[in-house]
Design a protein that fits this description.
This protein is an all-alpha fold and 265 residues long. It has helices at residues 6-35, 51-56, 59-91, 95-106, 113-123, 135-160, 164-171, 176-205, 208-213, 221-230, 234-264. It has two domains: 1-35; 51-264, MetI-like fold. The protein has eleven helices and no strands.
């Protein structure tokens, strides 16, 4: 085959390297350079400074980072728990009903996040559930966006799990709760931690629905970055973006280590 020759592999890797450098690496490098730029009038920035990071680690920007962390941790944890519960419950349903459940859980993926935010804004702006203007509507918006991915990740793992493991435990006298906690959940831990990593990364970078929903006292860092760029403070926005990337990467790495330990067990 052509793709298995040495020359074709070199060409394929070269094309990948060019695309990766142009689409992924170059924008990241530009953001890092802008985060330390005192001014930028030529090809490269000049008067390099770390004052933008000092500003990003203080005041409203740092408060927004803390809000993003809280939102990401809470919404990703709840999405994994609900997604795991739904995946386990759907596994025992008849085929047609399960396909309907899958469709319902994947509906938020079919619409832009701005539409999700607008729907929540309209639905919860009147009593008896008046959530507009509170942090809870932001958390709910993130949960709606993350839940389909958590459900699909765990559901795929459930479909690959040998049902005889749970049946063997039940035949030995284990109660349903014990089978769930000692057999089914441990087998699904790698998938659950993987969905947690994805959910955290998505929540930390979510902007569309958040812009529609956030109150003044619960503004996430992506929303603050958008506001900074809108005011022309590009260098501070770049420093805040680097801070967001580093924080998200650390969270994903920690969850990745947990996934590795879960897989070993």
């Amino acid at each position: 085959m052509l793709l298995w020759t040495r020359r074709s592999k070199i060409i394929l890797w070269a094309v990948f390297a060019v695309l990766f450098a142009g689409v992924v690496l170059a924008p990241l490098v530009m953001i890092v350079l802008a985060s330390v730029a005192g001014k930028w009038t030529g090809l490269l920035p000049s008067a390099l400074t770390g004052s933008h990071f000092a500003d990003a680690l203080s005041g409203e920007t740092f408060a927004s980072l803390f809000v993003s962390l809280q939102t990401g941790v809470i919404s990703s944890a709840v999405s994994v728990l609900l997604g795991t519960w739904a995946a386990l419950a759907a596994a025992s349903l008849p085929g047609k009903v399960r396909r309907m459940v899958d469709t319902v859980f994947h509906l938020p993926i079919a619409v832009p996040s701005v539409v999700v935010g607008l729907a929540l804004l309209i639905a919860f702006s009147q009593p008896p559930l008046l959530l507009n203007g509170t942090r809870w509507i932001v958390l709910l918006g993130h949960l709606m966006i993350l839940l389909p991915f958590s459900y699909s990740t765990v559901s795929a793992a459930v479909s690959r799990t040998d049902p005889q493991l749970a049946q063997a435990a039940a035949s030995l006298g284990a109660s349903p709760a014990r089978v769930l906690l000692r057999v089914r959940i441990p087998v699904l831990l790698p998938a659950m931690s993987a969905s947690a990593s994805l959910a955290l990364a998505m929540s930390m970078g979510e902007l569309g629905a958040t812009t529609m929903l956030y109150p003044p006292d619960w503004r996430t860092l992506p929303a603050s970055i958008f506001a900074l760029t809108d005011r022309g403070q590009v260098f501070l926005a770049s420093a805040s973006t680097v801070l967001l990337l580093v924080t998200t990467l650390l969270g994903v790495v920690v969850l990745g280590l947990a996934r590795g330990r879960a897989a070993e067990r």
